[in-house]
Amino acid sequence: MIRFLAVLLFAGVVFADELKFENVRLVQSKLGQKRQEAKLVPGEEFWALYDIRGLKYDGIHASVKVSFKVAGPDGKVVLDQKGDEQAGDDIFAAHVMYGYLQIPFGPDSDLGKYKITLQVEDLLAKKTADTQIDVEVVKGDLGLLNARWSNDEAGENEHGPAMTEGEAPNLFCKIAGLSGKDGKGGVEVSFCVLDAAGKEVAKLEKMIDAEVGVGADAVPLHITVHFTHVGQFQVKVVVKDKVAGTETSTTLPVQVTSASR
């Protein structure tokens, strides 16, 4: 089985001869880092960004529908989502429509290769175009999923890596692959901050040392980080599975500018 929730969003428009998707790229989140490979573990969110070129428009207005299908490892369609009619305005003469696709793969997702077909329909030109994205769901070891900066503890209101001195965003991710006994496990969480030269400027060992419930779902984690100095930094989070004795880490970049600017 696989459970999906998908979100499509786009703004901006283009005019060209051929309707097509361009610059499709896989990322960790809407504003996140590039995903190095098209592999996910059950319970992880799939994100893709894309551009659409070749739309016909009336003045600065275009009318489109963006839909997608997901075929599972056996080739059968497990999700078929039709898009609603959307208006796109080329108010900045950017000549491109930007969009993103979000599909959380449920913790009970079947392992194997999935094929995502993304389609755009230009309602003014009466044309369609599509593109395909291949992704594989693999058995997961201990890992931190979909790490991102967020303005809230649930990771829903995403914040980019550019911060202002004095801000205190949340580093949000999900811990997958924890070991446990009778539904219980334990984690230790530490973090450190590195400057542009790679020098450690702040460190907090075992800021979290707790028992957690272990089940099919990944365990959410958020850490509030107060940025009090200007500069370019890397924030590294290390999570240890106390039952298995293994650990994993993730690193997020941040650029802090002066609040007086």
Q: Secondary-structure element order, as H and E? A: EEEEEEEEEEEEEEEEEEE
Note the overall shape.
Answer: flat
Q: Report the structural category.
A: mainly beta
Report the portion of residues in β strands. Answer: over 45%
- Describe the biggest sheet? 6 strands, mixed
CATH class of the largest domain: Mainly Beta
CA-CA gap between termini: 52 Å
DSSP helix count? 0
Uncertain segments: 1-7, 9-15
Mean of pLDDT: 86
Say what the CATH topology of the largest domain is. Immunoglobulin-like
- How large is the radius of gyration? 21 Å
Number of domains: 2
Q: Provide the CATH architecture of the largest domain.
A: Sandwich
Number of strands: 19
* Fraction in helix: under 10%
Explain this structure.
By secondary structure, this protein is mainly β. It folds into 2 domains: 7-137, Immunoglobulin-like, CATH 2.60.40.3880; 143-257, Sandwich (Immunoglobulin-like). The chain contains no helices and 19 strands. The strands form 4 sheets. Strands 3, 5, 6, 7, 9 and 10 form a 6-stranded mixed sheet that branches. A hairpin with a 5-residue loop joins strand 5 and strand 6 (77-81). The model is unreliable at 1-7 and 9-15 (pLDDT under 50).
